[in-house]
């Protein structure tokens, strides 16, 4: 007898970009309206634990923004031929045995049928324009 288990994790999409995270101590001292701030990509991790993932949002043509349980953000850049518009209706992740989502290894499966490779993960940092 063979028992097989198949797990797929659905990632909810947000209707609009979420508000920025609470300011750090440095940002609290710096005056300036929120409209003078923007998300900037920095070097990110190779992998994240899937259990950290809370939501996703499409805010750019370069990829999909992932919101994590610690209120930080990452941008998952997608492979050629796969744009964020393919993921508007949501997407699924097929977890590996290690429970991690890794750039260059894993793919997201769109509800529309698209199969998108995650080529890179970038950390998003809120900075002044």
Which helices and strands appear, and what pairs or packs with what?
Layout: E1 9-11, H1 25-29, E2 37-43, E3 47-49, E4 53-60, E5 63-68, E6 73-78, E7 91-93, E8 100-102, E9 107-110, E10 115-128
Antiparallel strand pairs: 1-7, 2-10, 3-8, 4-5, 5-6, 6-10, 7-9, 9-10
Integer count of domains: 1
Pairing-aware structural class of the strands and helices?
mainly beta
Major beta-sheet overview:
8 strands, antiparallel
**Strand percentage:** 35-45%
How widely separated are the two ends? 61 Å
**DSSP summary: helix tally:** 1
Nearest-integer average pLDDT: 82
The radius of gyration over CA amounts to 16 Å
User: In sequence order, what are the helices and strands, one letter per element?
Assistant: EHEEEEEEEEE
**Proportion in helices:** under 10%
Shape: globular
Q: Which key phrases capture this entry?
A:
8-stranded antiparallel beta sheet; two-stranded antiparallel ribbon; globular; 129 residues; mainly beta
Structure description:
With 129 residues, this protein is mainly beta. It has one domain. Helix content is 4%, strand content 44%. It contains one helix and ten strands. The termini are far apart.
Question: In brief, what are we looking at here?
Answer:
The chain is mostly beta strands. Helices cover 4% and strands 44% of the residues.
């Amino acid at each position: 007898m063979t028992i097989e288990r198949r797990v797929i994790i659905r990632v909810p999409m947000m209707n609009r970009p979420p508000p920025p995270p609470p300011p750090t101590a440095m940002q609290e001292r710096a005056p300036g309206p929120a409209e003078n701030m923007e998300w900037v990509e920095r070097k990110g991790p190779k992998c994240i634990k899937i259990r950290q993932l809370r939501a996703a949002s499409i805010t750019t043509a370069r990829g999909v923004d992932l919101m994590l349980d610690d209120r930080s953000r990452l941008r998952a850049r997608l492979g050629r031929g796969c744009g964020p518009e393919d993921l508007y209706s949501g997407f699924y992740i097929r977890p590996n045995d290690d429970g991690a989502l890794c750039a260059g290894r894993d793919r997201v499966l769109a509800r529309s049928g698209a199969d998108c490779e995650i080529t890179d993960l970038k950390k998003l940092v809120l900075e002044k324009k």
